[in-house]
Structure formats: structure tokens, C-alpha cells
Amino acid sequence: MMTNSMTSRLRPVQSGRTTLVAVLDIGSTKICCVIARLTPRPEGKALKGRSHQAEVIGFGYGQSTGVKSGVVTDIEKAEQAIRSVVGMAERAAGLTLESVIVNVTAGRLGSETFSAAVSLGGQEVEKSDLYKVLRAVNERSVRPERSIIHALPIGYSLDGQKGIRDPKGMVGDKLGIDVAVVTSETLAMRNLELVLHRCHLQVEALIATPYASGLATLVDDEAQLGVACIDFGGATTTVSVFNDGHLCYADAIAIGGHHLTLDIARQLSVSVADAERIKTFYGSVLPGQADERDMIAIQPVGSSHDEAPGQVARAVLTRIMRPRIEEVLTAVRDRMQATGMMDVCGRRFVLTGGASEMTGLPEVARRILARNVRNGRPMGIAGLPEMAKGAAFASVAGMLIYPQVCAQEYNEPRSVNKLTGTDGYFARVGNWLKTSF
């Protein structure tokens, strides 16, 4: 079972070595599994913090069932959907998965910043000192009802001097650290783990969806100067703020692109499938000059196929969609202002996720957020099928990047299972060598 601290269990990829990684994106509208080979980048061609390049060797994709707003609502249906998608990726890659990296949207994502200090006594800063101060933060931030997903150091100080990037090897009396802690509700995490166990899969690591989206779509200068990434998902909209190259804030709002589809279905009295098609082909949140004249054919719910379809002006569709988008953007702005993150994120927002590709969304976002806005697409992943290269798969691409950057996180120590058993012959020989020499 999960403990209250679910920080990364993942071992960082080693430079110069090729490794396989499997990721599973469990969304409210889609489930996607990707198996990729991480190969070392040629010397001098590595991006900042990216030591490997990802080449996809297995891809599985399917409709999500039994999941709502990232929370498991029907364990049987969720298990079937995950098994189907993972099986598809395994057949394409020609291997069987035992563990996966999973994204987290559920459980009311939240983030806080904690500070702690440890006495050095005038000695050099060692790795054990960093571990000690990170553990102190971890103990302070754990609460019974919430699990820690990430504990990311965002700044060090030595004897009150701030702005230190890596204190290892430096001398001082007091080492301080600021840590951004991303948490989620424990019960939501346990249900997610339970479904995966039923599929005979272990959770290798958890990554917050907004963090993954930011890793995939932001360029280095943006993350350094300050930027916010908004991921418009199917049933949730997640936000992450990066500054000085680090994640410092994450949040989630339980409204997404599927709510737009339901609004259209209700207002136009069409089926959900037809509403999705109308939204995809004709949807816009910015009124155009010809919208009153452009007519869209609709098939009302319950009408027979031989009946003539109805018609509705495109402007009506825009008037249905725009209030919902404005509601989401206003909620994002208000939450960020309440936490002081509008100042931290600088002057730029990046929009990603499947619902971010709506016509006119950047213009509406610029007006409401009063910031520069651009659309973001996943970068740096080779071998993805054409359908998976869009903004809807940003979190998947970020999950493939995550093993290369997870080394900076605090991770809860775990016991290593010895292949020979604790009392095996090799273990006894090892103990004898330790005690004798």
C-alpha cells in the first residue's frame, strides 16, 4: 500500500546508458500507454537537463472508461480499459510490462512551499546533509489525508546567503532549503494503485500531470524567467508554474473540454458524440464576421435518419462555448492571484492539452489573464504516431522526459529485495567481507 510520502521511487537514468521506460496516461477521456527506448544524446547536443533522447517502440491508445476527473469511479471498467491499452503497447514493442510511470490528476492536486535548515558546524556540505534537510521538510509536510507526489528543491541558502544552486562541497554553519511540495489525496492514489495491481502492474513513479505537461512544452528560457503552463484536459484543467528552472506551483480545476461537449449537447439537443464532432470541426470561442451566416447541420436526439437535419448558426455555437472557457480561465487567474503566483510566473502563459487547440483560445486567454499567451506542443520525442504529436499528448511526452530530471527530487528510501534472499550464500559472503576487511 502507499505511504503518505509517495515521492519518486524511480531511479534516474544513468548517463551513457540505454534504458527502457513505460508510461501510462490515465485521463478522463483517453488512456494512453507508451513504451520508449531512452538512448544517450551525442555529446554537445543534449538539451538542458536532457541527457537522453526518447524513441517510441510501443504505443497504445483507447477511450477512457471508469475514470472521471482523474478519479477511478468504476474499478472494473477502468481495469478493462487499461488492460486493453497496455496490451496494445506491449504487442507493438514485443515485451511484457511489469511497472509503469503514472500521471496524477485526481485528488485535488495542491502545492505548498516548505523551508528547513540543518546545522553544519563549519564543515563541507555533503550529500547526507542535503538528504537530512530534505527529510526534515518531508516529515513536516506529510498529512494523514494527503500523499506527497513531488518534493522539489527550489532554492538553497548557506548562512543566510540565498540564491545558491548546488551547495555540495561548500563550507558553512547553517544550510537552508526551500522545497516545493506537490500533494494529492491519499485515497484517490490508493484506488489508482489498486486498479494497476489488478492489471499486474507496479507503480514505478507518480508524476503530477501539470508538471509533465510543463516538461514537454516549455523551453529553457521560459522556465528560467517564469512561466505558467495550462493543460486543458478532458475533465480537468491543470496549472503549473515554473521559475528559475524549477516547478514551484501546481493546481487542478475540475472543468475540462468534455464539459464544453456536454454544454453543446444540452443546448442544441444533440447526442454527446455529435456534440464532440461539432465542437471539433466548428468550435470557436472567438466570434467571426460570417458566423451569423455560416450554418451547421445538426441531428437532434431521437430523430430518425430519414428526417431532414436541423440547422444552427455558428455564432450560436460560439455563444455556448465562450462562457465555459471564460469560467475556466477566470478560475485559473483568481487562484494564481490568491497564492501570489501571478507575479512568479512572469509575463507568459503556455496553453496545451487537447482542448487548447480551439480556435480563438489564445486571444481570449490574453484578454482574461493579461499576459502573453502561446500554444505549446510536445517537443523532443521521436517515433510517436502522427495522431500523438498534438497538444493532447503533452503529458505523455513529459512523462518520458521525467526519468532524466527526477534525480533532483527527494525520494523516500525503500528496501531493495535481494535476488538470493536475505540469508542467501552471496549475502553471507558479502557480510563476511564487510566484517573481515
From TrEMBL:
The keyword Hydrolase does not apply. It comes from the Bacteria. Pfam families: FtsA, SHS2_FTSA. SMART domains: FtsA (SM00842). It is found in: Cell membrane. GO terms for biological process: cell division. Keywords: Cell cycle, Cell division, Cell membrane, Membrane. SUPFAM superfamilies: Actin-like ATPase domain (SSF53067). CDD domains: ASKHA_NBD_FtsA. Residues 21-217 form the SHS2 domain. Gene3D superfamilies: 3.30.1490.110, 3.30.420.40. It is a peripheral membrane protein. Its main location: membrane. InterPro entries: ATPase_NBD (IPR043129), Cell_div_FtsA (IPR020823), FtsA/MreB (IPR050696), SHS2_FtsA (IPR003494). Cell division protein that is involved in the assembly of the Z ring. May serve as a membrane anchor for the Z ring. NCBIfam families: ftsA (TIGR01174). Belongs to the FtsA/MreB family. Self-interacts. Interacts with FtsZ. This is Cell division protein FtsA.
